[in-house]
Amino acid sequence: MNLRVIILLLCLVVFVAGKVHRFRLQRRSHRHHKVPHAHMHLQFRNALRRKYGYTPLRTTINQASDSKGVVLSETLINSYDTNFFGEVSTGEQPFTMQFDTGSSDFWVPSSHCQVCIKKCGNKFFKESKSKTFHTDKVPFSITYGSGSVKGIVASDDVGFGDLKIQNQGIGLVNISDSCSDFDGICGLAFQPLSMTGSTPLFQQMIDQKLVEQPIFSFHLKSGSSDGGSMILGGSNSSLYYGPLTYTNVTEAKYWTFKMDFVEVHGKGSRRCEGGCKAIMDTGTSLIVGPVLDVLSLNNAIGAQHNATYDLYTVDCSSIPTLPIIVFGIAGKEFYVKPQTYVIVFQDFCYSGFMDMRGLTYWIIGDVFLRENYVEFDWARKRMGIAPAV
Ligand SMILES: *[C@@H]1O[C@H](CO)[C@@H](O)[C@H](O)[C@H]1NC(C)=O
Ligand SMILES: *[C@@H]1O[C@H](CO)[C@@H](O)[C@H](O)[C@H]1NC(C)=O
Ligand SMILES: *[C@@H]1O[C@H](CO)[C@@H](O)[C@H](O)[C@H]1NC(C)=O
Ligand SMILES: *[C@@H]1O[C@H](CO)[C@@H](O)[C@H](O)[C@H]1NC(C)=O
Q1: Tell me, which fold does domain 75-224 have in CATH?
Q2: Which of 57, 101, 138, 294 has the fewest CB atoms found within 10 Å of its own CB?
Q3: Which CATH class is domain 240-387?
Q4: Which ligand is closest in space to the CA of residue 315?
Q5: Distance, CA of 181 to CA of 183 (rounded, Å)
Q6: DSSP structure string for 343-375
Q7: What is the pTM of this model?
Q8: Do 75-224 and 240-387 come out as alike in CATH topology?
Q9: Measuring from atom 6 of ligand 2, which residue has the nearest CA?
C-alpha cells in the first residue's frame, strides 16, 4: 500500500471510530404542566431577567375568578414551553440535563437539596457512591432562566453515552428556588461566564481529545417527543440545507454575535436596522428583544398585548396566514414560520417574541433554533447557521 492509501484508511478509521457523537435530545411540551401557562410566562419572564442580570419585576395577576389577584412568588418556575434535554451521567449516576449555550456551568442536585428532591422529584448525586468524586467545598451560586441555585464546587467524571470526561468541575446544588423538567444544567458557553470557576465541559472534551473537532451543533425538532440532536465534535450536513453561513462570536462569554436585522416578511417593518447585539441561547425557549422592537414585530403580525399576562396573544385560527419573520445574519437571511413562532397552549395562542424591559440586545432562543441548525465552533469562536432539515 502506498502512503496515500494508508493516510486515507487512517482518516476513515478516525471517522468511523466516531469522535463525532450524536446525542439524542428529548423534548417535553408544556402540556403536562398543571400551572396555568400564562402564570408560567410571568415566572419565565422574571427568571430570564435574572439570568441576564436584570432585576425581577414584581407582578400581580388579577384573575376574573380571584379578585384578590395572585402574587407570583419566585418559588415555582417551570421549564416553560419547550425544552430540550438528554441523559448525562455524573460519577456514573444518571441525570436528565438541559443543554444551555446561555451559561457555562455543569451542576446536579446534591442530597442536601430539599426542594430538588422533595418538591421537584429530581434525582440527586450520591457522593458515597462515586469513587472519582472530589470537593474542597468552595461555595457558588448561579441565576438562570429557570431559577437560581446555590451549592458547592466539586469534580467528578461525566459521561455522555460512550464519551467520558474525567475530572469535570461540577456544581453540587444544596439550594434551589425552582423546579424544572430536568435535574441539572449542562452549560455550553465560555469560561468567563462560569460561576463555579470550572473549565467548561466542552473545553474539557477538547483537552481530553474526546471530540474530532472543537465543534458542537444543535438540530432541534418540533412537534414530537423526539427533540432532535446535539452533535459533539462536528456537524452533520444531512441535517441542514446548503452551506453554513458563519458569523463570528463578538464576545466569548455568551455566544454573542452581530445580527443585521429582524424583519416581518412583506410588511416592510425592519428592526435592529444597521445591526445589533444578539446571543444564541439553547436554554431559552422564545426570542426575546428590546421592548419597542418586539412591540413593532408583534404589531406587524397582528398580535394583541394582553395586559393581564403581559404577553402578546394571537388568534389561533390566523396562524396559517401570518407572515414569516426574517433574521439577517452575516449577509444571509434566515426564516422562522408562524407555526414555529406562535406558541399554542390548548386554545390559547401567543407570540414567541417576548419583550424585556431594559434589554438592549436580543436573546435568540429555541423558536429560532427549531428552524435553523446552528454549529457552535468553540475554537474559531464562530457560529455556522443554515436552515434545518
Ligand atoms: C452544602 O452542603 C455541604 C454538605 O453538608 C456543606 O458543607 C456546605 O456548606 C453547604 N453549602 C451551602 C452553600 O449551603
Ligand atoms: C447524519 O444525520 C442523518 C440523518 O438523521 C443520519 O442518518 C446519519 O447517520 C448522521 N450521520 C452521522 C455521521 O451521525
Ligand atoms: C471573523 O474572524 C476571523 C478570525 O478572527 C477573521 O479572519 C474574519 O475576518 C472575521 N470575519 C468577519 C466577517 O468579521
Ligand atoms: C388575557 O387573556 C386571558 C385568557 O385568554 C383573558 O381571560 C383575559 O381577559 C385577557 N386579558 C386582556 C386584558 O385581554
Answers
A1: Cathepsin D, subunit A; domain 1 (2.40.70)
A2: 138
A3: mainly beta
A4: 4
A5: 7
A6: EEETTEEEESEEE-TT--SEEE-HHHHTTEEEE
A7: 0.87
A8: yes
A9: 238
